[in-house]
Amino acid sequence: MATTVQIGGVRCHIVSDGLNLSDGGGFFGVVPRVMWERVIAPNARHQIPADDRCLLIESDAGLVLVDTGNGDKLGEKQRQILGVGERRARLLTDMASVGFHPEDVDVVILTHFHGDHAGGATRWDTPDGSPGAVVPTFPRARYIGQRIDLAEASFPNERTAATYKADNWQPLLAAGRLEVVDGPQRIGSQVRTEIAPGHTAAIQVVWVQDRGESLLFLTDACSWAVHLDRLAWVPSFDIFPMTSIETKRTLRRHALERDALLVFQHDAQVVTGRLVSGPRGPEVQPILTKEAWSDPLPTVVGA
Ligand SMILES: [Zn+2]
User: Fold this and answer.
1) Within a 13 Å sphere around the CA of 20, how many CA atoms are in the beta-carbon half?
2) 255: CA distance to ligand 1 center in Å?
3) Average pLDDT along the chain
4) Over 90: is that where the pLDDT of 150 sits?
5) What is the reported pLDDT for 138?
6) Gap from CA of 211 to ligand 1 centroid (Å)
7) Ligand 1 centre from 63 Cα, in Å?
8) What is the DSSP string of 239-265?
9) Tens of pLDDT along 260-303?
10) Residue 114 CA to ligand 1 centre (angstroms)
């Protein structure tokens, strides 16, 4: 279910590509299970639920979408692994619930090129959603991605190859729709990105700032709220874990200074929160929470 928040004069909609399954060790890395299972209890297969949120921003530079979810170009096996089942058009359905359609989007910011962020950037152009020609999902949008991350995605190694699928970005490049950029970006006067390395070399977080109010969309620089509370908790997905810790320290300082509304992309329980001073340092005070295993979308969405 989409949630709308107001940052100064800017309306932002937290939308979702739905709930996925993930191995608990993925998000919590070397943290012992006896510790992380107090945050989120896994199922019998050691899996935990993970949301796949995106952000729609009604900015002065037009409608900006941050990330695109897994999309629908998933094979049966991938659907099974992710626990996606038969749900299709998940993000698009949630966007429609707040009145927006693919052709309304002016800018798509890809925080990085992992499949759960860039998968929905393109779609199969067939009437029944079966495999076929791949086209941009958002037909009018210019897409923005970081050059260093695109290089990493285009030439993966054995460790990173599984998440990088060229048909998530190649058709955008071919259509001249992917703007490949270097470093922090400004989109109008209210939206900007900041490089937050660790999870990947050039992952970009997104700030929305207007009339003294701030929102920080943390993407996988800080996937769950507890990752911000405990700097040493770093996902095993992260390519540069030591850098992730320093990135989180910096983001924490900036978020505290600006009293930013934090949006967590994958936290199955804490959707938004704000930092407050705690006995061990800054900690996230949850604002919007949800039931861990509840899918924010209807169980079955028509193909
Ligand atoms: Zn992710």
Assistant:
1) 28
2) 21
3) 95
4) yes
5) 98
6) 30
7) 22
8) SSHHHHHHHHHHHHHHHHHTTPEEE-S
9) 999 999 999 999 999 999 898 999 999 999 999 998 875 544 33
10) 7
Q: Ligand 1 centre and the CA of 116: distance in Å? A: 5
Q: Tokens 């996230």 identify what position?
A: 284
The tokens of 18 are what? Answer: 């739905």
Q: How far apart are CA 205 and CA 207, in angstroms?
A: 7
CA–CA distance, 105 with 240 (Å, rounded to integer): 33
Contact 103, 138 (CB under 8 A): yes
pLDDT at 298: 56
pLDDT recorded at residue 303? 33
Name the CATH topology of 3-289: Metallo-beta-lactamase; Chain A (3.60.15)
Residue type, 190: Q
Between CA 195 and CA 253 the distance in angstroms is 15
pLDDT digits (tens, 9 = 90+) for 187-231: 999 999 999 999 999 999 999 999 999 999 999 999 999 999 999
How far is residue 233's CA from residue 223's CA, in Å, rounded to a whole number?
11
**219 neighbors 117 (Cβ within 8 angstroms):** yes
d(CA 131, ligand 1 centre) in Å: 24
In 3-state terms, what secondary structure has residue 30?
coil
Start-to-end C-alpha separation, the chain: 19
Cβ(106)–Cβ(143) below 8 Å: no
- What ranges do the domains of the chain cover? 3-289
Nearest to 71 by CA among 129, 152, 4, 143: 129
CA-wise closest residue to 290 among 7, 16, 93: 16
Q: Ligand 1: distance of its center to the CA of 29 in Å? A: 14
- Distance (angstroms) between ligand 1 centre and the Cα of 128 equals 27
Distance 67 CA to ligand 1 centre (A): 10
* pLDDT the model gives residue 85: 82
Span from the CA of 38 to the centroid of ligand 1 (angstroms): 22
Q: How far is the CA of 223 from the centre of ligand 1 (A)?
A: 7
